[in-house]
Amino acid sequence: MNMTVLDATAADFDKALERLIASDTAPDRAIEARVEEIVEEVRRRGDEALLQYTRRFDRVSAQTISELEIPAQQMRLALEGLPPAQRAALEAAAQRIRAFHEQGVARDWTMTEADGTVLGVRVRALDRVGIYVPGGKASYPSSVLMNAIPARVAGVEEIIMVAPAPDGARNALVLAAAALSGVSRAFAIGGAQAVAALAFGTETIPAVDKIVGPGNAYVAAAKRRVFGTVGIDMLAGPSEILIICDGSTPAEWIAMDLFSQAEHDEMAQAILLTPDPQFRDAVAAAITRLLPSMPRRQIIETSLRNRGALILVRDLEQACEIANRVAPEHLEISTVDPRRCMDQIRHAGAIFLGRYSSESLGDYCAGPNHVLPTARTARFSSPLGVADFQKRSSILEISEGGARALGGIAACLADGEGLDAHARSARYRVQEGAVPAAGSPRESR
Question: What is the CATH number of domain 4-23+237-366?
């Protein structure tokens, strides 16, 4: 197959790389307009609009949204009805994801200054979150685990899951994952209309505080539109993998790792960086040899042809420089000494070290979250985690001595900003005799 081959030492490489990694992040106006209409209709008409859109887009007729709610018993039965090996795998993945995220729980802390002033942070979980689980080209029970388990670990009391069920087909693995990960309520609805329902609430579906989970362009546009009314995790783009390999890993392994992201959709991106031209050619040959056996061959082929690349680099240092420019969602460092390269990496959603650390293990069961920043947003954002389901409140308990010490500073700065009430508020507590004795509030006169 035809796949882009680049030489990082060539004079025009920088421009070629920019063309390769460029992604059109501007909203599609047609999609935005359609989503605006859907969101507004659900906000205004609630369940009635939700039923209308479910009939139109999912081809599911129901008289009430309650008919689309998935009973907890159905989720439990789905888990109990899985083949033993499948259930064991799902439970093992859930256990590992939970154990990993338990390490990321933020907790209250305080510091006490010499004058008795206490400063600190109080951490509390969000009350209610919504999880969107895709159900179009494929179903993703792993997305249920990766979104719901960190929320539960954070202490979220209520988790509302929405998952489209085209033609009424409800995926047993998705339902089993929901039962296993602590989903409170689930609805067989999807699309922009489901996002709007979670954001604004309807007669049946409660409004949430934050919406997480991947989806198509309509789901992303809806999340963008409701942000501010609710929080969102991120606006995810097509999946990405970048592999740095020194040639010490079998070419077939690397080819299949490239396939693992390319098979998501035609816009996914898979890139190999190697200083070994013979290894680059071996990977190209492995791609040609293995591709015909892949069930999702057409998707992989389109992805690799349009957005994939095999790039020859001068050395591993240059490979790391390029990786930082790309800021990939998934970065595999498949080298003899991967930690040496890792020390040079600043931007990546998840970093996989060594020849045995395939990206697919991270997608399902290693433990770290597979909800990762895409489209170069790893430069400033992070994987989904417990912190995304917690919020912080600052604690300030100022002592009398602290008020005197800080009052002058605050008043001076407030004067500089022209905010007289701020300055006076600070000075009142600095004036001699202005502070009543502890436990002796002044009488009103």
Answer: 3.40.50.1980
